[in-house]
Amino acid sequence: MPLPDKSVDLKGRTALITGAAHGIGRATAFAFGEQGAQVFVTDIDEVGLEKTRAELEERGFGVGSKVLDVTKEQEVTAMIESAISEMNGLDIVVSNAGVSVAGPAEAVPIEDWRWIVDVNVWPHVYAVRAALPYFREKGSGYLVHVASAAGILGAPALSAYSLTKFAVYGLAESLAVTLHGTGIGISVVCPLWVNTDITERGRITVDPDIGMDESSARAFGREMLRNSGIPPEQVGEAIVSGVLENRFLILPHPEVLQFAQIKWADPESYIERASEALQSQRRLFGERSGN
Ligand SMILES: NC(=O)c1ccc[n+]([C@@H]2O[C@H](COP(=O)([O-])OP(=O)(O)OC[C@H]3O[C@@H](n4cnc5c(N)ncnc54)[C@H](O)[C@@H]3O)[C@@H](O)[C@H]2O)c1
User: Fold this and answer.
1) Which residues line ligand 1 (CB under 6 A)?
2) Which of 5, 41, 180, 232 lies 20 to 30 Å from 281 when distance is taken between CA atoms?
3) Under 8 Å CB-to-CB from 22, ≥6 apart: which residues?
4) pTM, rounded to two decimals
């Protein structure tokens, strides 16, 4: 670890995954298990985590688990320590747990801005602070940071979410440059839409100009992910391949690279085109709510 030699496999390695009770984290745990890695799964949702753990065990994968809240630094530190002692060492940490906040920047309550920064940003810092000294000491290890396409491209009507994902991207890129050649690998994962229940667990402030109530807005978001999202399993597999190839930028949707190239070639035109996409989304919302 990292795995510059592509013939090295994941058998006997241990991967810790946060936010593994559902969605991308859960799928990533199975993807590592399929490769012969042991997995240490964590989440704030005790019931969901137990289900993931039981299913991993049923498949015969080596598994440990811990219920915790990633917004608490002591809990993240204890999580890394438990994984190291229970699994006899730790090779890969996937910082995946995350939430969404949608709505107009000026209307989203300050508590929701703070909440999303607490869940989506700080835990990446806590994981680095807890795992990096251990990886440095053993001269190997791998940190995977799950950001989003919204961490490369300013996402329409998701300012709070984009704020946090750009922060994660910046942290990961800086770490990758700093740690290059040290034996410690860094990846950042930037998917577009993925078919998970993230909107159910997220917070929404309805845009007063659209007039849709919160539950309809939530249902709309869920439907969009269901219709346009790729399965979380595809993201889990992309993460495992990215780690095996020691690749910094993991893009489960390859078109994100093209969008980023368009953006950097002509930032003004990106703003115009993304804004047009937002207008058509608003029209759809409006039609739904009868406005
Ligand atoms: N779904 C998408 O379209 C999409 C796209 C790009 C990036 N992402 C990112 O992927 C990651 C996973 O998202 P998902 O779509 O699988 O969502 P999800 O809601 O299905 O899973 C997120 C998991 O994180 C856990 N979690 C939330 N707060 C926590 C906390 N304080 N402590 C510990 N665990 C906590 C939840 O219980 C849940 O199991 C997130 O960082 C998200 O921003 C998602």
Assistant:
1) 18-19, 21-25, 43-45, 48, 69-71, 96-99, 119, 146, 148, 191, 193-194, 196-198, 201, 225, 229, 232
2) 232
3) 43, 45, 48, 196, 197, 201
4) 0.95
- What is the pLDDT at residue 168? 99
The whole domain housing 24 covers 14-256
Pairwise CA distance, residues 25 & 163, whole Å: 21
Q: What is the CATH number of the domain that holds 87?
A: 3.40.50.720
Predicted local distance difference test score (pLDDT) of residue 289: 61
Select the more confidently predicted residue: 21 or 283: 21
Residue 161 domain-assigned? yes
User: Does pLDDT of 3 surpass 60?
Assistant: no
How remote is the CA of residue 267 from the centroid of ligand 1, in Å? 29
161 a catalytic residue: yes
Among 114, 194, 197, 256, the mutation site with the greatest number of ligand 1 atoms within 8 A of its Cβ is 194
